[in-house]
Each structure stands twice: as structure tokens, then as C-alpha cells.
Specification:
Blueprint lengths: L7 H22 L4 H5 L8 E4 L7 H5 L4 E4 L1 H15 L2 E3 L5 E3 L1
Antiparallel strand pairs: 1-2, 3-4
The structure holds zinc ion.
Zinc ion binds next to helix 2 and helix 4.
Length: 100
């Protein structure tokens, strides 16, 4: 007798839990905010951030080389700059990001 529970639902539920566990483990291994550390400050990291926006790309999403840990202050303050300025994205004269 086959169960309606087989298949997708488990994997879908597991996705969020997998990320929660992965980021928690990452924060344990990388406890200090990388931005603050660059400026010689010590701050406990609370957020695992994607260095390059993954835009739904699972490979980039799970690539730990694309992860960085930030404290809340840095995350909230710098997120905008990172997504529009630092990472290969330039803003064109029309105000839209120019890629490449
Ligand atoms: Zn910080």
C-alpha cells in the first residue's frame, strides 16, 4: 500500500530545516562578523549572508565559499551596498544594474 506522504513533501519540508542547520553550524565555525573584523572590531555574527546574490540558484545558495557571516548591524547597513555596488554590479546612468 503506497502512502500519499511519499515523495516531495518530505524534501520540501527538509529544505528549510537543512538551511537552518547548515547556517547554525556555519555560525559556530565562524562566530565573528567578517566586516567588523576587517575594521579591527569584534562582533558576534548572527546572520549568514550570500556574498553574491544567489537569485534562486541552488548551487550558489549552498556554496559555502559564497557565504559570509555578519552581525546584524553590518547586515542591515551593508546589504544594500553589497547588492548594488560591490559585487560586479554597476548602476548604469538609467539607474538600473549593469551586469558583466
Ligand atoms: Zn559587523
Amino acid at each position: 500500500m503506497k502512502s500519499w506522504r511519499d515523495g516531495r513533501t518530505t524534501a520540501q519540508r527538509g529544505y528549510g530545516g537543512r538551511w537552518q542547520r547548515a547556517r547554525a553550524a556555519f555560525l559556530v565555525r565562524h562566530p565573528l562578523c567578517v566586516f567588523c573584523r576587517r575594521q579591527g572590531r569584534i562582533a558576534i555574527a548572527e546572520v549568514v549572508d550570500h556574498i553574491k546574490p544567489h537569485r534562486g540558484d541552488l548551487k550558489m545558495f549552498w556554496d559555502r565559499n559564497n557565504w559570509q557571516v555578519l552581525c546584524k548591524v553590518c547586515h542591515d547597513r551593508d546589504k544594500k551596498r553589497i547588492e548594488t555596488g560591490n559585487v560586479k554590479v554597476q548602476i548604469g546612468i538609467d539607474g538600473w544594474p549593469v551586469e558583466g
